[in-house]
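Subject: Interface between my chains keeps coming out wrong

I've been trying for a while to get a sensible model of this assembly. When I model each chain on its own everything looks fine, but I need the whole thing in one frame so I can look at the contacts. Pasting all components below, labels as-is. Any help appreciated, I'm running out of ideas.
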Amino acid sequence: MSDSNDLAGLVAAVHADVAGRIGEGRVADYIPALAKVDPKQFGIAIITCEGETAAAGDAGTAFSIQSVSKVFTLTMVLERLGEKLWERLGREPSGSAFNSIVQLEQERGVPRNPFINAGALVTTDVLMAGRSPRIVIDEILGFLRERTDDGSIAFDAEVARSEAETGFRNRSLANFIRAFRNLAHPVDDVLDVYFHQCAIAMTCRQLARAGLYLANAGLDPVDGDRVASGETARRINAVMLTCGHYDASGDFAYRVGLPGKSGVGGGILAIAPRRASIAVWSPGLNAAGNSLVGSLALERLTARTGWSVF
Amino acid sequence: MSDSNDLAGLVAAVHADVAGRIGEGRVADYIPALAKVDPKQFGIAIITCEGETAAAGDAGTAFSIQSVSKVFTLTMVLERLGEKLWERLGREPSGSAFNSIVQLEQERGVPRNPFINAGALVTTDVLMAGRSPRIVIDEILGFLRERTDDGSIAFDAEVARSEAETGFRNRSLANFIRAFRNLAHPVDDVLDVYFHQCAIAMTCRQLARAGLYLANAGLDPVDGDRVASGETARRINAVMLTCGHYDASGDFAYRVGLPGKSGVGGGILAIAPRRASIAVWSPGLNAAGNSLVGSLALERLTARTGWSVF
Amino acid sequence: MSDSNDLAGLVAAVHADVAGRIGEGRVADYIPALAKVDPKQFGIAIITCEGETAAAGDAGTAFSIQSVSKVFTLTMVLERLGEKLWERLGREPSGSAFNSIVQLEQERGVPRNPFINAGALVTTDVLMAGRSPRIVIDEILGFLRERTDDGSIAFDAEVARSEAETGFRNRSLANFIRAFRNLAHPVDDVLDVYFHQCAIAMTCRQLARAGLYLANAGLDPVDGDRVASGETARRINAVMLTCGHYDASGDFAYRVGLPGKSGVGGGILAIAPRRASIAVWSPGLNAAGNSLVGSLALERLTARTGWSVF
Amino acid sequence: MSDSNDLAGLVAAVHADVAGRIGEGRVADYIPALAKVDPKQFGIAIITCEGETAAAGDAGTAFSIQSVSKVFTLTMVLERLGEKLWERLGREPSGSAFNSIVQLEQERGVPRNPFINAGALVTTDVLMAGRSPRIVIDEILGFLRERTDDGSIAFDAEVARSEAETGFRNRSLANFIRAFRNLAHPVDDVLDVYFHQCAIAMTCRQLARAGLYLANAGLDPVDGDRVASGETARRINAVMLTCGHYDASGDFAYRVGLPGKSGVGGGILAIAPRRASIAVWSPGLNAAGNSLVGSLALERLTARTGWSVF
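Reply #2:
Try treating it as a single job with all components included. I did that and got this:
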């Protein structure tokens, strides 16, 4: 860190940097459970590869992690299936919105990358491996509970139900992929898992902790677990950097300079390789569907620390 | 470097890694001057932030830098115009081929990023600033001669003439952008500069040297010149990583993990921030138009050194 | 008719014209019930505005009318809703395949025209008007039974079930439209009706008879029923001519010169305004999904009769 | 005619029908020569296959025929090259705006139809047949002078010059097509002819007279000239009906029911096969770039006469 003596000072400084803008942006309103979240909230938590932690603001408030979950299912799948995953899925930025179906038609049911919705559905389908939705949802929860050493992490049942009731666009994507035979399980089962993984609720503290292995070449430095190979961790970071913020991924790389994955719940997990895992949360979104104040906080963080990978 | 005692050993090892594949890929054939290049060539040159250099293979053979030139014109423009550049140009991966015109129509003449052809034409237009093509071409050459301390760098007149004679697609792009009033100079003048900047011939040694400022936060560590601010250098690296290899940028980030910019002449400039600038060259291209063996060499380089930014 | 003394001679001559090509094309294979149809079949039936009829070949064999059903549901809906229908649906050629979803995204859930699958789903949704699928299916069957004075017309249960089991692409389209709130009924109900209307089985004789009102300004000249206003009939003919053959509509207009609507079962209903209604059937399809020999027969018919509207 | 005793009464009635709306719409403003035209003008002229004529309003005022010229160059080319033309050009509605370049990229330089700008450039290229622009422009003028028996028809030099100076989008299209080797002549020569053919000035009387062969199976009934075969005439009418009004072709077929071709100068040539050739003109355009009041007048005309082909 270039201009902060300690981690606590850093998060406090970043918090102060963005304090005047908390509440900006537009809360996701496609389901009631998200629409009713108070936009005037902001949390940040950092955990370093040495295990040092610091947090500020609403870092202990649980929020819907939504698409941030895609990072963890990708990890689980890549470790099992390896490079064969890429026969069913690309790893290129899409140049399109998160829920676009256009490229799916042009590229015959092969999603551009695992971080747009279409791609995450394929990832989830691979993860299922013939098992029931309930078992797979439990496995995802188990992964996150183990990463955080916190057995209380759960999905928000109301959010999951709302997603299922209103998820016409995701249902459209899943059927479209299925039409090209790129889903092996019943559409409803894949969506069941997908809607539940998106509905998982975590705090900034938990989220930063869960992603720490990505900052440390796949090895969790706190509990010593080998979560992924160093190569897998680096590769997931690469996909996060090029594809993690939908059609604003280039802008995030330009302004923040860290691999990151956002969710419409307002959370962002960012990775400073060899240094730290960072989670920010603020519900108001920018036009591309990423947390407005969260992005800003990360921009301030790298400006203050020089943690940009570039 | 994780497993090489010295830089010379590293480049020799990488050279050996790819030796069996030199000649693979398809040489660009859209102009005779490129089509006649012998594909069985490969060069690599590295220069570190400490000024240490090493090279192997055909690192002293000049080749047409083509789109690698876009990195240097972007530097020149960003230092002058700053963030205002982005009013006329995006910085998002396009998800499309280097010469695609589709998004240009959908986004009303604003190119997605400065590294696709359409975007480079806008960059060149900004650089011109009311001056004649001849003066601007000289300025670009001057920039590269100063960066390399080598006054012999020049453009290949035959290549420039061929580009002008056959560049219908680029002429189409330029007129399209002009139709949306996003070029200020006459189309023929902008193309004149563009075709000449693409026709500049450099060796791997020269190219690695020229890009060194990007590895060192904008300050050339050899001659002490402040070429760009640290922020500008980081930002150019970010754009290189997300957009530097057209619709294979995600794949390059995944496999290599370094900011890089390729050209259809077979050259690639890659930046290992805070470590080194690397140039590779081999004329055979992969399906996305990037040097097949050059990409492979860089993949081996980061596997051997751990220089991936991730 | 320019060169046929009587209608029977005409259909015999057209039959002879195409006899050598019966069996060409590729039978629709997306559901088993269609895939197993013998391609070496061809039927043609004509009924004039004076009530004269003639038929040849397999004109008495029932086939799956598939998308030809869209003409009848459009009639039913336009008579009820009138021009308000076009607030939810376009009437422009799509320039795309029958099951494309691209324009649906660009135009926010408003299908280009009622004859692509997306548009037919909206038409069906309008027709439902709050009623159950069963009632609406019965109403469509009732319409066709009344038009043909033949109470035996029914849907093929095996085809309907197969469509439902494998209709992932239609399910995707319906959910996509629903996401933009352009379906009022549950997606499964709309699809239920749609799959059944496509599974209706009719012979060429029945189909030509059913469409006769379109050739006679909306008034069925045989039973005297006013099926649609003259304006509605002309307008449906116009939509058939510009949109009736998916992305080969221009080619059909160029070669045949009649309003027509094809189905992937191999049937085509063509209308010669003020003269006759014609149905042809042959299961082999061309690349655009229209009956290859059926199109050819209609081309020969207009060449022999001068019935082209142009 | 269903409700008019004579042709003069018909044009007077149609004129009266639209009188209150003359001046509506937006005059084309991309070149000064068009932008300065007074929008409060309307002309209509009809000539029947029996040679009877009638006109009303500003039917004797010359206007820039613009894209209506595409009908005549298509006639000239189809008579010479025949069906081989379609190897370089489609005849399907594009579903896109008149100057779209998107499909041109997807379909590798083969324009969708001869009535969008890209297609007309190919038609013009075919017409040139190795000759100089001057000779080809004279040939087009000669064709129109012969059709109208009026040697005074000429192009508007100011309009032609303005088109050339500001035609960046057409220049882009031409270069794009040339990149796919679908233009045989120099881009500047093809554009030279194209800009001049668009700049031809004609009155409604002249335009209706010029198109009469299309209403009479290719034979001009007044001077007895065989301008095109009956088949060619019918086929041009078919292309006019499906493609003559860009992405509002379906709407024109629906509302008017006649083959027609519009130009951004506000003129429309419409053909009532076996009955009459009709020209209308009013400079104000609708959103799709077709004459607003001209379209309305034709809608009234077919409502009054029953001349719809449907």
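Reply #3:
Confirming on my end. Chains A and D do not touch (no CB pair under 8 Å).
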